[in-house]
Amino acid sequence: MHYFFLLTILIVMETFSTHARSADLDPIEIKIVSDVLRIEPHVKPEMNFSTLLFLNQQMHPQFNISFIPASRLREWRELETQPDVCLYNKVKNPTREPFAYFSQLPMTAFPPQRLVTSPSFNLPLTVNLEQAINDYGLLIGVIEGRSYGKHIDDFLMTHKEQFLWLAGKDSASRLREMLRKHKVDAVIEYSATFIDENSKDKTNFSFHQLHEAQESVLGFIACAKSPIGKKAITAYNRLLAQPQNQQYIIDAHKNASFGNEAQFIAAALTGLYRAKPAIK
After folding, report:
1. H helices within 27-71, ranges in order?
2. Cα dihedral sign for 30, 171, 44, 265?
3. pLDDT tens string 82-103
4. How many whole angstroms from its chain centre is CA 159?
5. 208-221 burial, b for 16+ CB within 10 Å, e for fewer?
6. Residues 172-201: pLDDT tens digits?
7. Which stretch of DSSP H or E encloses residue 149?
8. How far apart are alpha carbons 169 and 178 in whole angstroms?
9. How far apart are CA 67 and CA 55, in angstroms?
């Protein structure tokens, strides 16, 4: 009788241990929420999404990653309310840092955003937003919920009624299409984004430096401030610290940029990656 009692206890303990080991091996579910997801067949994904896919392939089998399309505003609402959400290519700033774990190194870097418009407006090479809307009378389209950098954001907030605001899923690509159809006069965007979408845009549009956008913009991965989000961002930190992944990112930026901007971005990323912060 005593023997059978001990045997029963051992079987129960082994069953519990097996379930515990199985739970430990189960992948952690992560949702990537974005308004620019492109995973359709035969459609070339933009550079930053391709980079994310490259990193995500290395997250398996520890993580199981799915994608959810959403507007820019909903992205951040999901991140703040759901424990398993991550965003990508996000500007890190003091306003956002209390609500998310950000990767220590960027996954993307771009030259300053440009004012993109038709050559027929004959704008100077360098212009400020006040000149563009007042002196040249341009209707400029911008994205609700997007950070363009501190100086541009400040100007947009103080002159909000003078811009055309677009929100919702795929708002950035829809706004670029509105520019192509002359429904807006200009947009604020990275030149590489246009060229990556359509190489003809390199000659169809003119790209102008903005006084309010003098610094490169870095895009980071951001995850929910939760135990799951912490595990995810730690994994991304380790991947972004690996030399072979850094070289992949640098090469991807070179291929997506053109002219002097390609060399500028490659040098900027190389300098950032050489800093090698301690992985957290």
Report:
1. 47-57
2. negative
3. 999 999 999 898 889 999 999 9
4. 26
5. bbbebbeebbbbbb
6. 889 999 999 999 999 999 877 776 666 667
7. none
8. 15
9. 14
Of 140, 161, 141, 158, whose CA–CA distance to 150 is shortest? 158
Asked whether the beta carbons of 108 and 98 are under 8 A apart, the reply is no
pTM above 0.70, yes or no: no
Sheet holding 206-210, edge to edge: 126-127, 206-210, 114-117, 186-189, 140-143, 164-166
* Distance separating alpha carbons of residues 263 and 270, to the nearest angstrom: 11
Listed residue (30, 16, 19, 108) closest to 63, CA to CA:
30
Distance CA 31, CA 54 (A): 16
Backbone φ and ψ for 174, nearest 5 degrees, come out as: -65, -35
* Contact present, 185 and 121 (Cβ < 8 Å): yes
- Tell me the three state secondary structure of residue 198: coil
Q: Quick check: 116 and 187 in contact, CB under 8 A?
A: yes
3-state DSSP: the chain helix, strand, coil percent, rounded to 5? 50, 20, 30
